[in-house]
Automatic annotation (TrEMBL):
Domain CAAX prenyl protease 2/Lysostaphin resistance protein A-like: 152-240
GO biological process, one term: CAAX-box protein maturation
Domain of life assignment: Bacteria
Protein name from the UniProt record: Hypothetical membrane protein
Molecular function (Gene Ontology), one example: endopeptidase activity
Keywords for the protein's UniProt record, in alphabetical order: Membrane, Transmembrane, Transmembrane helix
TM helices/strands, residue ranges: 6-24, 45-62, 82-104, 116-135, 151-172, 208-228
The keyword Membrane is assigned to this record: yes
Organism: Anaerolinea thermophila (strain DSM 14523 / JCM 11388 / NBRC 100420 / UNI-1)
Length: 251
């Protein structure tokens, strides 16, 4: 992978997403509902604990023999097979997070699925998705129709984005922001998200572009956290992250 073009594409995409989200948030119709937690410290500690457990599971999953056996047992079809480990880890982590949510008797809006912000999340997410396709210069690829391989890849990255954003931007970040403050909550969540993904990055053996990929992971996590705070809906980050990941199919 060429470093310079990658940086140009990534930075252009991020700047475009920030600009569009900022402009949309300035419109009079842009109104979100904030979800709070009665026991901020308790819920924050639970979120940190869940995040820490998921990071530990990620490292075990990437480095242990049983984890690697699971990669082979559940195999995605080509061309999404390279995403196999991340998809499986995301699904396992989502089940654990939802279990933690329901054991405390909390509704789905406590993981970013607030129906009041649903329309806002969809509108903003679709705008960012279309912008990403345009900035990646893939408009004609999409308009010309999608192959079975492209659709399969899209569904896999949708599953990854849905799980990852519900876990980190929804469950973890909402609680940490309510407890620690917005900036600290976004940064702490981004750190947990990066540590969760890091073992799979190391296991891939792509050491030549390790630092580039690590910076991209951190930047994406912070950007997604900021978008979540703007709209109050994980649908925004799910739609944007799905499109951004899907565009890798064409690289």
């Amino acid at each position: 992978m060429e470093l310079t073009p990658s940086w140009i594409v990534i930075l252009t995409e991020w700047l475009g997403v920030i600009a569009v989200a900022w402009l949309l948030s300035a419109t009079p119709r842009f109104r979100k509902q904030t979800v709070g937690f009665r026991y901020a410290r308790r819920d924050g500690i639970v979120a940190l604990t869940v995040g820490g457990v998921l990071v530990l599971i990620g490292w075990i999953f990437a480095s242990s023999s049983p984890g690697k056996m699971l990669w082979e047992l559940i195999r995605l079809p080509e061309p999404a097979r390279s995403l196999n480990p991340l998809f499986i880890l995301a699904m396992i982590s989502l089940v654990i997070t939802l279990a933690a949510l329901f054991l405390r008797g909390q509704p789905l809006k406590g993981a970013g699925w607030n129906t009041t912000n649903l329309r806002l999340g969809i509108q903003t997410g679709l705008a960012l998705a279309l912008l990403t396709i345009f900035l990646r210069n893939r408009v004609m690829d999409v308009l010309n129709g999608l192959s079975r391989e492209e659709i399969a890849y899209l569904l896999v990255v949708l599953g990854i984005a849905l799980a990852e954003e519900t876990i980190f931007r929804g469950y973890v970040q909402m609680r940490l922001c309510w407890w620690l403050g917005e900036r600290q909550g976004v940064l702490a969540t981004a750190a947990l998200n990066t540590l969760w993904r890091l073992p799979l990055l190391l296991a891939s053996g792509a050491y030549i572009v390790l630092w580039l990929n690590l910076v991209i992971m951190i930047g994406q996590a912070i950007l997604s956290g900021w978008l979540m705070q703007k709209t109050g809906s994980v649908l925004t980050t799910i739609l944007y992250r799905t499109t951004s990941l899907w565009m890798n199919f064409y690289t």
